[in-house]
Amino acid sequence: MVILGGGPGGYEAALVAAHLGADVTVVDCDGLGGAAVLTDVVPSKTLIGTADYLGGFETAAHLGVRLEDHEGDELTRARAELGAVNARIRDLAEAQSSDIATRLGEVGVRVVRGRGRLVSATRVLVETDAGTETVDADVVLVATGATPRVLPTAQPDGERILTWKQLYDLPELPERLIVVGSGVTGAELAQAYLGLGSDVTLVSSRELVLPQEDQDAAAVIEDVFRRRGMTILNRSRMAAAERRGDGVVVTLEDGREVEGSHVLIAVGAVPRTEGIGLEEVGIDLTGSGHVDVDRVSRTSVRGVYAAGDCTGVFPLASVAAMQGRTAMAHALGDAVTPLRMSAVSSNVFTDPEIATVGVSAADAEANSDIEAVMMPLSRNPRAKMLGIREGFVKLFAYRGTGTVLGGVIVAQRASELIFPVAIAVQNRLSVDQVASTSTVYPSLTGTVAESARRLHPTQR
Fold it and tell me: Cys-Cys crosslink for 260: which of 43, 176, 236, 436, Cβ 3.0 to 4.6 Å?
């Protein structure tokens, strides 16, 4: 097995292949763990966690806790030292990458630092600092990931005009940060820097932030953003971003100019599929440049599989890992379950978080056989105890049978709370089975059970 890329799709595939007895070589040029560990998921969620911790100082007053200094004066503000925060983030990412390397070494996976290119479906040419090496393969897995989309009118310089990969080298907190793009990455990082103390302006081309998410959930998040002091420019598109003096200016398509100290460009990602021999060996790519794969990660060329963000299936580290594991199991003849996207849960790490699984509200509106219920968390006793004011649980189920089809949870740690809903979707449980399962009182999951009870099938 030869695997191009050491991110979640690559290293998880390598572990499965080695466990099944294959001789595995991973070709990696970025560092094991890939963008997910080194520049994207792990760093951003660590940054968000720090901002959430600072947010706890505001919650303290609501809970009746007074913070004082040693002289008895009330503390009303905490300050983030971004240099120290970023140093911790980089150390954590490197430690995680090192742990992955150790694990691969323990199971006998060979790691080659370099860039790989397919010469044929069974041969990979690797360019390393020491020269070139040819590696023969029975099976090749392409797991090269994606990279931030760069616009010609907003070229990143790593100092004032930034992609999300460049944020963790900043020595000081941006005084006035402009975030262009209100998708998951833009929304998460906009709120993180707002929580850390930056003055944040979010440029959103849509009516609401997070346009691909549940619209009830997006409305909650946008309301939270505004109440916490973020400026949101809805229905606004960036035309250009440039440095001007000691700051930046973002010009919008309608001619307005937005001034800031820094700008983060978060307008999507592009697959890293160019220049690695894919088309030359006959592998089909989509119009966006992603590798076209089936539900067991096969490409159009026998013996070549692909996993992760380079496929465009679902840009999640968990999906990449699942694709990689599935590919190796299929290639080596082990039991395999084709990828079922309807059971994949995802999360937006804003505060509160948005977790989703299964069908969406749009699906429910288009299908009269699907019914939904939404319950606010403000009625939940545990939420009241914790000072949680925003959020809800929404469940979708088939009329008549009550089979759970999906759900949305907006809450603190929604990423943890979505799991019972994901289990129900994966295993086609009914709302009655969910409702009859004991929950702790008081707990936030009590609202999940209550939502299921409200969807109990009747003859009405």
Answer: 176
DSSP strand pairing (25-28 vs 2-4): parallel
Q: What is the pLDDT of residues 109-127, one digit of tens each?
A: 999 999 999 999 999 999 9
Q: Is 295 exposed, middle or buried (0-12, 13-18, 19+ CB in 10 A)?
A: middle
* Structural tokens at position 42: 């792990």
Neighbouring C-alpha atoms within 13 Å toward the C-beta of 149: 13
**In this structure, are strands 146-148 and 269-271 parallel, antiparallel, or unpaired?**
antiparallel
3-state SS assignment for residue 341: helix
Q: What mean pLDDT is predicted for residues 218-231?
A: 97
How many Å apart are CA 409 and CA 208, to the nearest integer? 18
- Rounded Cα distance between 168 and 163, Å, is 10
Tens of pLDDT along 409-440? Answer: 999 999 999 999 999 999 999 999 999 999 99
The amino acid that residue 457 corresponds to is P
Cα dihedral 38, 39, 41, 47 in deg (nearest 10): 110
DSSP state of 320: H
Tokens of 76: 């009303």
